[in-house]
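Task: sequence design from structure.
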């Protein structure tokens, strides 16, 4: 994958850790915390950080020969001229689209999408056209598509100023498991970094972790996300299968659930609260966490059928909510929902279950015409994509009803269809014949 090439190339040149080096990496400090409590089994993700930063961090936990041994583990990876603090892992397309605010970047996203994938904007008139659009959007490599949402930094270090005093990064702030218990799995993974050994390590961490409160639960989900990141750095292959749950989505859910909370309720240690400024900026930090991690979680599970059993997750309710509230990113939301529906049509949520139209809050909210982009070019592209998305969904639903001769949740679906029909009328592109035909078929089809 292009966005991982640089990391992978750098990784391949490094020798594997010796047994003594791995022991040093797993050596606990006075608080029972080792390097592996918050970092990968060999610290590969720290490639490019400055020696001064790493030495200062090591000194918080280890001294003397142990500190020297830990630093030796990272030998050859550090760079006095590089600033690893500015790294934002897995930023789609490896670049943030230009724009001074979310609206401007959302407009650029629509423009970029039209340049890269013009097939998405070719008028949909027939079922064959709808199927062609479905195939086109399913073929898009999501990690390579630049977006206007900025991912979180790999590391936030308050020593570099108040702008870096945040928990909105990849590293856990507190340990949640005993690293002595992962020695065998860590050794096996370092010796053979495959998806099987990665999953074995991940599953062992989950089985021994002891989250005590929301904050340590976040630490566990960050750690699991970091394991995925470092594996992709090491191999260049994207991890999509999460037997123990999608950790990216879980991090985003933390930002959603606790955005009105306080650091004491979360269980944040007093020393962490002070250095991360959580007594004054917790709400902003939750905002920094939720939307980027929702996007990362979605790119690993575009159908949103493997990230949790809640209907709110499968419908993308909260994802849509924050795409609008933390943006607005209306173009991103439309694209995400169109891809999600295309995925769910291809692979049903439950094998054999009928497919349904579900655009979540994108439709069941303030009239869409009041929320679309205002700049002429972006608005035109948004309308073209929306028309195609809606017609694709209507035609695919009609086909599904004819094929399966069963439906699910017909009343909510009919409501969604009426909302999208109203928008098509509002922009002067009504589809009354198609809409009425699908509504009649929906009503006449038995409910599963």
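Answer:
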């Amino acid at each position: 994958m292009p966005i991982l090439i640089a990391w992978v190339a750098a990784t391949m040149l490094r020798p594997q850790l010796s047994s003594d080096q791995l022991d040093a990496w797993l050596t606990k400090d006075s608080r029972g915390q080792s390097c592996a409590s918050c970092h990968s089994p060999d610290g590969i993700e720290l490639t490019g950080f400055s020696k001064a930063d790493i030495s200062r961090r090591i000194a918080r936990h280890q001294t003397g020969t142990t500190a020297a041994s830990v630093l030796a583990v990272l030998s050859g990876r550090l760079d006095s001229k590089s600033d690893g603090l500015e790294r934002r892992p897995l930023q789609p397309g490896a670049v943030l689209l230009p724009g001074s605010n979310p609206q401007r970047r959302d407009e650029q996203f629509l423009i970029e999408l039209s340049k890269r994938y013009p097939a998405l904007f070719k008028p949909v008139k027939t079922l064959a056209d709808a199927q062609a659009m479905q195939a086109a959007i399913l073929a898009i490599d999501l990690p390579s598509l630049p977006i206007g949402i900025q991912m979180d930094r790999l590391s936030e270090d308050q020593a570099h100023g108040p702008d870096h005093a945040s928990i909105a990064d990849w590293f856990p702030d507190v340990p949640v498991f005993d690293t002595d218990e992962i020695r065998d799995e860590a050794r096996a993974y370092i010796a053979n970094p495959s998806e099987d050994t990665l999953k074995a390590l991940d599953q062992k961490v989950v089985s021994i972790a002891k989250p005590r409160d929301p904050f340590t639960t976040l630490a566990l989900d960050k750690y699991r996300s970091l394991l995925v990141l470092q594996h992709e750095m090491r191999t260049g292959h994207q991890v999509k299968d999460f037997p123990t749950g999608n950790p990216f989505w879980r991090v985003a859910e933390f930002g959603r659930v606790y955005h009105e909370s306080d650091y004491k309720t979360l269980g944040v240690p007093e020393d962490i609260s002070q250095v991360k400024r959580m007594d004054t900026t917790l709400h902003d930090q939750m905002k920094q966490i939720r939307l980027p991690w929702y996007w990362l979680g979605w790119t690993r599970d575009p159908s949103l059928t493997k990230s949790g059993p809640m209907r709110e997750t499968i419908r993308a309710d909260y994802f849509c909510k924050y795409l609008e509230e933390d943006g607005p990113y209306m173009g991103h939301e439309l694209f995400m929902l169109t891809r999600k529906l295309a995925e769910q049509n291809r692979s049903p949520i439950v094998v054999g279950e009928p497919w349904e139209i579900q655009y979540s809050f994108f439709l069941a909210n303030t009239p869409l015409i009041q929320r679309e982009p205002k700049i002429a070019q972006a608005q035109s592209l948004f309308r073209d994509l929306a028309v195609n998305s809606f017609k694709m969904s209507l035609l695919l639903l009609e086909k599904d009803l004819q094929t399966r001769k069963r439906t699910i949740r017909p009343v909510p679906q009919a409501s969604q269809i009426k909302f999208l029909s109203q928008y098509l009328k509002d922009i002067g592109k009504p589809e009354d014949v198609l809409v009425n035909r699908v509504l009649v078929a929906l009503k006449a089809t038995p409910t599963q």
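The radius of gyration is 24 Å.
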